[in-house]
Design a protein that fits this description.
The complex is a heterodimer of chains A (about 210) and B (about 210). With about 210 residues, chain A is of the alpha/beta class. Chain A has eight helices and seven strands, in the order αααβαβαβαβαβαββ. The longest helix of chain A has 25 residues, at about 40-65. The radius of gyration of chain A is 17 Å and the shape is globular. Chain B has about 210 residues and is of the alpha/beta class. Classes of the chains: A alpha/beta (about 210), B alpha/beta (about 210).
Chain lengths: ~210, ~210
């Protein structure tokens, strides 16, 4: 992780220099980039990966899933989730999808040697033809769009998803009051894991894994 | 001319909107009045339902007025609900080309110039434009809305710092309730204050 944080510092320097010498002046990117790897981001994503690992290996053997599982990460921001997955799933295809073009640009520089595919797209349009669909930002997706996406998934696709009840944030348009509300909303055929943690005594983050 | 209000959520109620509507109606009964809202109950003017997709909160819904799907044509004049009409403002609304906004002449401290705070010296309490001519504002926002929702505290900052061109109304059109106690302008804006409290006080005493 240390090398990744060093690369992020380098990107921050580039953003700052751009603001000095070019027409590009987006200093908020610095803050956004820092937020993307803050303590809670890492904590939440590692929690999801731990639970996914507990589930995935038994399922892989039982259902003859491929030797090289394909992950699609929806709303993957600059790629932290993809990187943390790569740490645990060495032989896998990992694609980070985010509609923000700058995430592709910066993410592909930070994680250039991690064999992560970066796609600039709305994952609702990109689709989730994969073995494992991961999104830790369900609260940012349109409610109906995301449900449509899950309905369109291949039967075998495992979904590992997080949302929260942090309604007061302007960009949070798909929050859920409780873990059960989130589960009901997702309408997965089988829930393999569900959990909830309190973050900073401010909001709850929910994790659901199922298919 | 279309006169538009935007009401989302429960910070303001129908009484706030109706009071603003009636205070404008006495000066202009020929205009078409609309409220863009998800709750049309008890409103005295025509309503346009807030679209369910994309779902936006609070003042961000104002940006949809610039979408090519917004169902109005011709000259448009927008008022925030927390504006108060003191006298006839319509002589100031002659130019519907481009985008015209409020000049916050009361924001004269250099603190508003900190570049990475993205503060601005305009506000969108009152806007004029012609429908269909400012679609690029909505389109740019919609393409990467999640990022802009994180970056900016409101639409004023988005409009200014994303490089859209605008004009401003004459400064004598509007005054700030908070910063300009001597109110002689046709419009008072209650920006940055809890208008609900002041609205109650004003309607009781006037």
């Amino acid at each position: 992780m240390e090398i990744i944080l060093q690369r992020i510092l380098k990107q921050i320097e580039i953003i700052y220099d751009d603001s000095m010498y070019s027409q590009t002046n987006d200093l908020y990117r610095i803050k956004d980039l820092i937020h993307s790897v803050d303590y809670n981001q890492i904590l939440s994503k590692r929690w999801l990966i731990t639970e996914l690992l507990n589930i995935f290996n038994p399922i892989r053997n039982k259902h003859n899933l491929g030797e090289i599982p394909k992950f699609i990460i929806g709303g993957g921001w600059y790629g932290l989730m993809a990187y943390l997955l790569r740490e645990k799933f060495e032989n896998s295809l990992i694609i980070n999808v985010d509609m923000d073009p700058v995430c592709l640009d910066i993410g592909s520089k930070i994680y250039h040697d991690q064999d992560i595919g970066f796609e600039q797209n709305d994952v609702v349009d990109y689709g989730i033809d994969c073995d494992i669909f991961v999104s830790t930002s369900v609260e940012h997706f349109d409610k109906d769009d995301f449900k449509f996406l899950l309905k369109s998934k291949p039967k075998h696709t495992i979904c590992a998803l997080q949302s929260n009840d942090w309604e007061k944030i302007d960009s949070h348009i798909n929050c859920h009051k409780t873990l059960d509300d989130f589960i009901n909303y997702l309408s997965l055929k089988e829930v393999l894991y569900k959990g909830e943690i309190k973050i900073n005594n401010e909001y709850s983050r929910f994790t659901v894994i199922g298919w | 001319m279309n006169i538009i209000f935007v009401k989302w959520g429960n910070k303001y109620n129908s009484e706030h909107v109706n009071t603003l509507y009636l205070s404008l109606l006495q000066y202009n009964s020929k205009a078409n009045y609309y409220c863009y809202t998800e709750d049309p109950s008890n409103l005295l003017m025509s309503t346009i339902p807030i679209v369910s997709k994309p779902r936006l909160k609070r003042w961000w819904n104002k940006l949809y007025m610039f979408s090519h799907n917004f169902p109005l044509s011709g000259e448009c004049l927008f008022f925030d609900i927390d504006t108060r009409i003191n006298k006839n403002p319509f002589p100031y609304f002659n130019d519907f080309s481009g985008l015209t906004l409020i000049d916050c002449h009361w924001k004269n401290d250099s603190i508003f110039d900190r570049p990475h705070n993205y503060d601005v010296r305009i506000n969108s309490s009152v806007i004029t434009w012609t429908s269909g001519t400012m679609n690029d504002i909505w389109e740019k926002f919609y393409k990467n809305k999640d990022y802009y929702l994180r970056k900016y505290k409101g639409i004023d900052r988005f409009i200014v710092h994303e490089g859209f061109t605008y004009k401003t109304f004459p400064t004598e059109l509007i005054q700030s309730f908070k910063f300009e106690p001597n109110k002689i302008a046709p419009i008072t804006t209650y920006e940055e204050l809890d208008y609900g409290d002041h609205f109650t006080k004003n309607t009781k005493t006037n």
